[in-house]
Design a protein that fits this description.
Blueprint (H helix, E strand, L loop, with lengths): L8 H22 L8 H6 L12 H17 E5 L4 E10 L2 E6 L1 H4 L7 E4 L5 E6 L10 E6 L20 E6 L3 E5 L2 E4 L9 E10 L10 E3 L11 E3 L5 E7 L20 H7 L3 E5 H11 L1
Antiparallel strand pairs: 1-2, 1-4, 2-3, 3-6, 4-5, 5-6, 7-10, 7-12, 8-9, 10-11, 11-14, 12-13, 13-14
């Protein structure tokens, strides 16, 4: 119900002035802020869609910097019958050392490998005799007069869940659709891949072969041995285990022989897994 009232002419003029002023302010403010109303959701009573979060420019800048570092230090380890990835961690004279996974190189009895570097050059390599115990790590070395970038090793003990991490390496296969599976061994650096994600689990007790870091990044077959980076481009882990392994819960047996609960296993199998770089540092310190 509406109530009609009479207003004196002078008051009408005064109110009209306020109305004009309000309209002017609204138009002026509207030039700076645009408000969009979804009439279909408003009329239906549904909650309007949430405004999507804009990408953090600092995060994007950091990611680009890490990606550039990753391209420089990540290499492909070509072996028989396996192929995997690695990261350049040291140079002494013309000898470069590449850290990778033991399971990438263990099947080759000839101790002859090839390392593909950022410039597309393939270098003959051999495995260095370093004892890592049961940890799934190995070092291979190649010779070159060229100056390749050396990775900076970080402190994996400073990691915590929720921290952004990046992973790089060379998938052995490419699947453009559900019916095609392409072998990438002859692709050179075209096969290279860089992914982002975050730390989801850090185990107090290690799994067998030294795996402790669970992260959300997509890691494919062939990226084993490749590096995991923190937000400043330091290597904090080595890729080694994929999501949803066909072996099931057996893959997640702890070093002491125990297994996770079903609930914990379901969370673990949805993650990629890496060996923290602290395990490498510890092994090197023990061998000196």
């Amino acid at each position: 119900m509406y109530v009609l009232t009479t207003v004196k002419p002078s008051l009408k003029i005064l109110l009209g002035g306020f109305s004009i002023l309000a309209i002017a302010v609204t138009l002026w403010f509207g030039s700076f802020v645009r408000i969009t109303v979804n009439t279909s959701t408003a009329s239906s009573g549904k909650r309007p869609p949430q405004v999507s979060k804009q990408p953090d420019l600092t995060e994007l800048k950091n990611q680009r910097l890490v990606e550039e570092i990753a391209k420089q230090v990540t290499v492909r380890v070509l072996s028989e019958p396996e192929a995997g990835s690695g990261v350049i961690i040291e140079r002494q004279g013309e000898t470069y050392s590449v850290l990778t996974c033991d399971h990438v190189v263990a099947g080759n009895k000839s101790n002859r490998y090839n390392i593909l570097t950022i410039d597309g050059v393939t270098h003959p390599a051999t495995r260095k005799s370093i004892k890592f115990g049961d940890v799934d790590l190995a070092v291979v070395q190649f010779q070159s007069k060229k100056a390749y970038k050396i990775a900076d090793l970080g402190n994996s003990n400073l990691l915590s869940t929720g921290k952004v991490v990046y992973a790089s390496g060379f998938p052995n296969y490419n699947s453009p659709n559900d019916t095609v599976l392409e072998d990438t061994r002859n692709w050179g650096n075209k096969a290279y891949r860089f992914t982002n994600g975050e730390i989801s689990m850090i185990l107090e007790g290690s799994l067998k072969q030294g795996y402790r870091l669970g992260y959300t990044n997509e890691v494919e077959l062939g990226m084993s041995g490749g590096p995991v980076f923190n937000q400043t481009g330091q290597v904090v882990g080595i890729n080694g285990r994929l999501k949803y392994p066909i072996q099931g819960i057996d893959v997640f047996t702890f070093a002491d022989g125990t297994r996770p609960s079903v609930e914990m296993f379901q969370k673990m199998e949805s993650l990629s897994w890496a060996i923290p770089i602290a395990a490498f540092r510890q092994a090197i310190a023990g061998s000196e």
